Amino acid sequence: MADEEQQDRTEQATPKRKEDARKKGDIARSRELTMTAVMICGAGSLLLLANPFGSRLAVTFAAALKIERDHAYDVNHLTQAFAATAGEALSGLVPLAIVLLIAVFVAATAIGGWSFSASAVGFKAERMNPVKGIKRVFSANSLNELVKAMAKFAIVAAIAVLWLYSSVEELLALGAQPVLTAIPQALKICGVSLLVVSTGLIAIAAFDVPFQIWNHHKKLRMTRQQVRDEFKETEGRPEVKSRIRMLQQQIATRRMMSDLPTADVVITNPTHFAVALKYDELKMGAPTVVAKGKDLMARRIREVATEHKVPLFSAPPLARALYRSTQIGDEIPARLYTAVAQVLAYIFQLNETVRAGQQRPEPPVPEVDEDEFR
Q1: Contacts of 4 (CB under 8 A, 6+ apart)
Q2: Rg (Cα) of the chain, in Å, rounded?
Q3: Exposure pattern of 127-146 as b/e (b: 16+ CB <10 Å)?
Q4: Rounded to two decimals, what is the model's pTM?
């Protein structure tokens, strides 16, 4: 069944599946890349620190081997001397340790990025299952690791043997050199040897990195049913989506009603449609729809407009055209510029005549081709 399920995983992993895997600590990693980085950085550090660290190590050894007769049988003195010598030697290794730690961190996060998951390091009872343990031992991944280990051993061993064979004379010459010279020279030889051996590891890492990335993507692949289930889970159940849409509509309605008092005019059907327009020639390129509604919402818009003394203008064809061709916050379409301009000019003129106590002007009859807005 597991093989059949694996064969059915034809879909690429979704962003959510990748994120869930990352939270669980399941990300692409290459141990070969980490080992290669540690070897190269360690070799480089040895070459750079060979002279100062070698000289310090030689002095430390020389001081440790000089034991006075009276102190040779004093256990407390020997213990203190050993602790001091060990501390001196280890303190010299601090720069090398820092470089190696940085190399481990950078190489480990190079392909999968940084991720910490408590579940990845926590206790899992299934790991104690001997049947699953045997399956892991004889799995394709274990076979791949065994082949890599054998190949790595063969390559590294061959390179090491060839290098040591070519460096026999240099190694034997160390015995004839003074200690203060031989120790730094030995560290240099170790550094060069590590670099040479690392060339084989580079070839292995160059093969392992793309393989681990491919294998990780393959492991995260999904069946079509899993994709559908995830989509349902992400989008939510129909009743939840309906509830969200209803809440969004309520919020939009409240916002629309709060903006309605700022409108310049409400164009009505007069009973079935209502569209509120606002125009500021300094801030707007064209009149903008502040609110719109149909039937009960249109009635509510008219009530709020009347309450805040926003003029109502009855123009059924224009109201229907505006309702069908615009959304709240949109500018009116260019085809309705003339009709709306007539209405706004009438409203502005009406306000002036009312303030001046003059006779009301005749309302315009905007002409609109409704066939264009059906």
Answers
A1: none
A2: 41
A3: eeeeeeeeeeeeeeeeeeee
A4: 0.48
